[in-house]
Amino acid sequence: MTELVEHGKLFIGGEWTDPSPSSRLRSSRGGPEGSEVIEVISPHTEEVIGRVPHASEADVDRAVVAARRAFDEGPWPRMALEERIAVVTRIKDAIAVRYEEIARSISSQNGSPYSWSVLAQALGAMMVWDAAITVARDFAYEERRGGVLGPLLVRREPVGVVAAVIPWNVPQFTAAAKLGPALLAGCAVVLKPSPEAPLDSYILAEIAAEAGLPEGVLSILPADREVSEYLVGHPGVDKVSFTGSVAAGRRVMEVASRNLTRVTLELGGKSAAVILPDADLDTALAGIVPAAWMNNGQACVAQTRILAPRSRYEEIAEALAAAAGALVVGDPLDPATQVGPLVARRQQQRSLDYIGIGQAEGAKVLAGGGRPAGLDRGWYVEPTLFGGVDNSMRIAREEIFGPVICLLPYEDEAEALRIANDSDFGLSGSVWTGDVEHGIDFARGVRTGTFNVNTFSLDMLGPFGGYKNSGLGREFGPEGFGEYLEHKMIHLPAGYGDA
């Protein structure tokens, strides 16, 4: 049985402090002085595995005031870049030391297979921190330009206090994607983890405290959507960086707009993996299968629409169905598991509902289609593959966020490109071909923020983000780093600096 993890304090401004009394006593288990408590449920056992305080609006106020003071008056934004890099490097190094603990914590909360949590959740987060350091060190913070009326000095300065709202599916990875550039730029941050996955954020808080961040620079407040909305709309916040659903992203943008707060939104996807007629099928499947069912299908970049040429459709359908059926489903903490449970009962039911919708629409279940045999407890859904899917079907157009994949036939490459682009989303995608140069040409025609040719990866030194409903702005690389900076133009007198 998993040991119960309990935390009684919040990390506000770099200090462990009691939560403020809450006026919304919805929980039957009150914390100190009537504060609310978040109960973390194992998606494998359906039992309580952790309890943490539920931050209130008063806690948000305390965190924003601390962040505001740290940014407006404190040393952090005024330090030399190398001093900030030294602190952030200590955070990155500590994550590398505690990666197994972090991976186990995340798998216990959200059902990610442990092997995937080690590589993507923990070590992947360390790589994000490391990439942010590389970008910050090479970034041009000031430049001289010739102007129409005289020389110019263009500066890039930290945006201020950042509200970073992260999801439950990849909590450390998305936290690093926001904290790394924000902190290195000189910002102060209030990080808001999801109530489904708050336990690993306590490990991050311990690491940050030991790394030597100055007072007020970082707060971590687990809370629900109501408190998130209060944070996003707080007048003391200069920038919101949000990762989550399209619906929630729209709400974030609406609330932030009241204060004209800058926003970055990394939202959903319905990405297409296009197998061209000349592709080597073994190579394609070796990349597509883990990219489709990664993290139990709970990944915004998952390749959830697989496009196959009609001339090879039956061959591809048979191979994909066999691959889906061979995936090992089970306890997320078992190193052999490839697909674990979904994060919550509602997510399990959502996937099962979409399976029913797909069948009603006329698609054919080629693999999976229900709960796995022998796993009556836990929020499991079989890795499911639908064949005979038309791109107008709901299962092909809506983000399911579970292990449900669509296989769509196409007649020629023009139709494949049209289907790939016929989506409200534009986050990721891939093409599989015997001719890489031709694959690059195909990639140029796809309306999506990231794309892969004969591979599937996410490089932290390049820009990541989406077209259309997949979001606004970018994370990673100099483009993502720039999201945490303001541009200032300083006019200089004519002739200044001339030899």
From TrEMBL:
Pfam families: Aldedh
Every Aldehyde dehydrogenase domain range: 35-490
Keywords: Oxidoreductase
Residue stretches of biased makeup (Low complexity): 19-30
Active-site residues, record numbering mapped to chain: E266
InterPro entries from the UniProt entry: Ald_DH/histidinol_DH (IPR016161), Ald_DH_C (IPR016163), Ald_DH_CS_GLU (IPR029510), Ald_DH_N (IPR016162), Aldehyde_DH_dom (IPR015590)
Keyword tRNA processing: no
Region (Disordered): 12-34
Similarity-based family: Belongs to the aldehyde dehydrogenase family.
Protein name from the UniProt record: Aldehyde dehydrogenase
